[in-house]
């Protein structure tokens, strides 16, 4: 069902009324916001006055951009760069959302490269020979599970991974990102994510973690990096997802979290901001809107009668319009906002957010909401791990056949 252009929210006559009213009190923040609204508004107007074709996700040029990235990655993996497993994950997951297969030899190259990033003592580093860190560990495991071959699964040294996780665990339940490094909610999520998908989780590994994450929820409703820190989209996603994995979401005030995230969708632009009073950014289409499936599911288990059976609790149409009109680079790849350059990070999270906005529910209550042409449809993504739900199922099935390693802290 391709929507007619007239139905687009950004082209309605009253849309301009959604712009910021600064009550005659200009501040640096309000002026920045107005500049972005002006820029986004001129794109919406140009579309209204000149094109009037259904919106198109430029799949082919995005795919070319991603394939080139993967090629370069395997050609020059000696290069010192602290986020190479992330590049692997952003690219393979984006291609998977676009339903573009990765050639076998290329997938094998990625597996071999990630194997070289794995530390002898467990966990993955940002590049070969560097120190292991939880963020690239999460990215490497996600990339390998997205590739999903026997070779990919076999790269992961589960015994050592479990030892690495234990070595980062703190007495208060939190985790350090790396040895000698900082503690924050990202590490709890990365640890819970890789431990659950590779079946190395034990009851004591996450002792106290859920309670520590709950302490990071702010009076605003969102979650900050550590207790007392300002609520932020990325940390909120990490905190809520980790609690879903640990089956302890009830420790949070979910209604207050819902109110916080719902108000992060920008009235005029249609995309999301990461924090209160910040500017719209395409990547928050996943970090913020991606909270909605998790919240929906959590509130559903509490039998909340107000829950919709067809829609997430944000304007799915408005966000798709923002992503399709304002975040596609004409040379392939997606971006933060008009005027910014494309990168693999934004390509991954803009596409992931677009997928969330297109697919509601699953199984018997799958409800699709597609802006633009039918070919815009992406594969769905798992709300907790952000890789394909079929990839999660295959990885869990694979690792469930193996025993949970028996490392202990003592
Ligand atoms: Zn961003």
UniProtKB/TrEMBL annotation:
InterPro entries: FTB, PGGT1B-like, Prenyltrans, Terpenoid_cyclase/PrenylTrfase. Binds 1 zinc ion per subunit. This is Protein farnesyltransferase subunit beta. CDD domains: FTase (cd02893). It holds the Pfam family Prenyltrans. It is an enzyme of class 2 (transferase). GO terms for cellular component: protein farnesyltransferase complex. The keyword rRNA-binding does not apply. GO terms for molecular function: protein farnesyltransferase activity; zinc ion binding. Residues 57-387 form the Prenyltransferase alpha-alpha toroid domain. It catalyses: L-cysteinyl-[protein] + (2E,6E)-farnesyl diphosphate = S-(2E,6E)-farnesyl-L-cysteinyl-[protein] + diphosphate. Belongs to the protein prenyltransferase subunit beta family. Heterodimer of an alpha and a beta subunit. Coiled coil: none annotated. Keywords: Lipid metabolism, Metal-binding, Phosphoprotein, Prenyltransferase, Repeat, Transferase, Zinc. Its EC number is 2.5.1.58. Its cofactor is Zn(2+). Catalyzes the transfer of a farnesyl moiety from farnesyl diphosphate to a cysteine at the fourth position from the C-terminus of several proteins. The beta subunit is responsible for peptide-binding. Essential subunit of the farnesyltransferase complex. Catalyzes the transfer of a farnesyl moiety from farnesyl diphosphate to a cysteine at the fourth position from the C-terminus of several proteins having the C-terminal sequence Cys-aliphatic-aliphatic-X. One of its GO terms (biological process) is prenylation. It comes from Leptobrachium leishanense (Leishan spiny toad).
